[in-house]
Design goal:
Largest sheet: 7 strands, mixed
Order of helices and strands: HHEHHEHEEEEHEHEHEHEHHHEHEEEH
CATH architecture of the largest domain: 3-Layer(aba) Sandwich
Oligomer: single chain
CATH superfamily of the largest domain: Type I PLP-dependent aspartate aminotransferase-like (Major domain)
Distance between the termini: 36 Å
Number of strands: 14
Number of domains: 2
Helix content: 25-40%
Radius of gyration: 21 Å
Number of helices: 14
Strand order of the largest sheet: 2-10-9-8-7-3-4
CATH class of the largest domain: Alpha Beta
Structural class: alpha/beta
CATH topology of the largest domain: Aspartate Aminotransferase, domain 2
Low-confidence stretches: 1-5
Length: about 400
C-alpha cells in the first residue's frame, strides 16, 4: 500500500469503542486529567483486538468454567523458548524461565534480590517512568547516565557510563532495550560496550526487552544475553507477550535468567513478596500468542509503521516547528515541541484542553524529557487523522 494512502478497508482500521470497558487509556482520562472527550494517545496499549487464536484460548478457559489456581506447564514453557529461538535466534532453556505478573514487578524484585540499601542503580534517561522509582522504592540511590542526542538521534554516553560504573556502590544497570520512549534498538556494538563496562565493574544488567518483538526490521534487535557468555550469566532479561499481542491486562511476564544462582535468588524474592501465582488466562493467552500469533503481528507491525510514517510526514508538512523521527521499534513516537518555547506544564495543558489530546508527558520519563511528548500510534488511522488535525488547528490558532 502507498504510504500516503489511507486504507479504510483494512481490518485494523476499524474503530472499536473502548469507553466504559474499564480501560485505563480511555476511561482513566477523566479521573487523571479531568477530561472525558479527548483523544487518548498516552498509555502504551493498542486499540486493536488481540489475535483470534489468543481470544479463542481465553474463551476455552472461560468455557471450562473452573477458574482456579494455575501453574505453567511444559507446553507453555516450550512455547516461550520456541518463540525466542524463531523470532530472535536466541536459545532459551525452559528451566531459565521465571514468571512474574509484569515487567515492573520483575524490575523491582530484581533490585531487591541483587542489591543492598545504599547501592547505586544506573538508568539511562529519558526512560520509562517506573525506572526512576526503582531506587527510592528500596532505599537505593538512583544514578543517571543520560542518553546523548543530536537532531533526535539518541545514543548511549558510554564514557559517562564507565565513570558512574566505577563507583564502589554501583551494582546494577537497568537497560531499556529497545528503548522506551525514543524507540532506539541498540546495536550489537553498543550492547557489547555495555557488557564490557558491566564486566569490568561487576554490574548486573537488568534488560527490559518488552518491546523486542515490535521492531520494524527483522533481526535488528539482539537480546542482551546473546552478546556473550559474560552477558548471559550476569543479566536478567525481562520479556512478555503483553505489548506484542496487546494482552497487558492478563499480567503475565517471562523473566529469563540463565545463571542458576541468580535465578534462585530471584525466586526467593518472588516467594517473599507472595507474587508466585499466575493468571490462568495469561498462561493460555501467552502460549496461543507465541504459537499462532505471528501472522497477526506481521500485519499489525505493517499497519503501525504506516501510521508512524503518516504522523511524521504530517508533522514535517504541516507542523514544521515540531520535530520527530521514525523509531526503530515500538508503536510510540517521541515528539519534540521545544521550538514552540512554551513551558512544559503549560504546553501539556494546552495540548490537553485546546487540542483535546492526551499524550504521555515527556517529563514522565525524567527531566531530560522536558519539551517532549510521547505519542501512541497503535490506533485506527481515522482516529489518528482526527488527532493530527486537532493538533494542527490548535497550534495554528494559538
Amino acid at each position: 500500500m502507498d504510504k500516503n494512502t489511507t486504507n479504510h478497508d483494512h481490518p485494523l482500521h476499524r474503530m472499536i469503542n473502548r469507553r466504559e470497558t474499564r480501560s485505563v487509556k480511555w476511561d482513566g482520562m477523566e479521573s487523571l486529567f479531568g477530561v472525558k472527550e479527548a483523544i487518548p494517545l498516552w498509555v502504551a496499549d493498542m486499540d486493536f483486538t488481540a489475535p483470534e487464536p489468543v481470544l479463542r484460548a481465553v474463551r476455552d478457559v472461560a468455557n471450562h468454567g473452573i477458574l482456579g489456581y494455575a501453574t505453567p506447564n511444559a507446553s507453555f514453557q516450550q512455547s516461550i523458548a520456541d518463540w525466542m529461538q524463531k523470532r530472535h535466534g536466541w536459545n532459551v532453556s525452559p528451566e531459565w524461565l521465571v514468571y512474574t505478573p509484569g515487567i515492573v514487578p520483575a524490575l523491582n524484585m530484581a533490585v531487591e534480590a541483587f542489591t543492598e540499601p545504599g547501592d547505586h542503580i544506573i538508568i539511562q534517561p529519558p526512560v520509562y517512568g517506573p525506572f526512576h522509582k526503582l531506587a527510592s522504592n528500596h532505599g537505593r540511590e538512583l544514578v543517571l547516565n543520560p542518553l546523548l542526542h543530536d537532531e533526535l538521534h539518541y545514543k548511549m554516553d558510554l564514557a559517562h557510563l564507565e565513570q558512574v560504573a566505577k563507583h564502589e556502590k554501583a551494582k546494577m544497570l537497568v537497560l531499556c532495550s529497545p528503548h522506551n520512549p525514543i524507540g532506539r534498538v541498540w546495536t550489537k556494538e553498543e550492547l557489547k560496550s555495555v557488557m564490557e563496562i558491566a564486566a569490568r565493574h561487576d554490574l548486573i544488567v537488568i534488560s527490559d526487552e518488552i518491546h523486542a518483538d515490535l521492531v520494524f526490521k527483522e533481526g535488528l534487535h539482539t537480546p542482551y544475553a546473546m552478546i556473550s557468555e559474560e552477558a548471559k550469566m550476569h543479566s536478567i532479561i525481562c520479556t512478555a507477550a503483553s505489548k506484542t499481542f496487546n494482552i497487558a491486562g492478563l499480567h503475565t511476564s517471562n523473566v529469563v535468567i540463565a545463571n542458576e544462582e541468580l535465578r534462585e535468588k530471584f525466586k526467593k524474592i518472588i516467594e517473599k513478596n507472595a507474587l508466585s501465582s499466575m493468571n490462568i488466562f495469561g498462561i493460555a493467552a501467552t502460549e496461543a500468542a507465541y504459537r499462532e500469533g505471528e501472522p497477526w503481528l506481521s500485519e499489525t507491525l505493517e499497519y503501525i509503521h504506516e501510521n508512524m510514517v503518516y504522523v511524521t510526514e504530517f508533522i514535517h508538512t504541516h507542523l514544521p516547528e515540531l520535530r520527530v523521527k521514525l523509531p526503530d521499534s515500538t508503536y510510540l513516537l517521541w515528539i519534540d515541541f521545544r521550538n514552540l518555547q512554551i513551558p512544559h506544564k503549560e504546553l501539556y495543558q494546552f495540548l490537553l484542553h485546546e487540542a483535546g489530546l492526551v499524550f504521555s508527558s515527556g517529563t514522565d520519563f525524567g527531566e531530560h524529557g522536558e519539551g517532549f511528548m510521547r505519542m501512541n500510534v497503535a490506533c485506527s488511522r481515522r482516529l489518528l487523522e482526527e488527532a493530527m488535525n486537532k493538533l494542527k488547528i490548535a497550534l495554528q490558532s494559538r
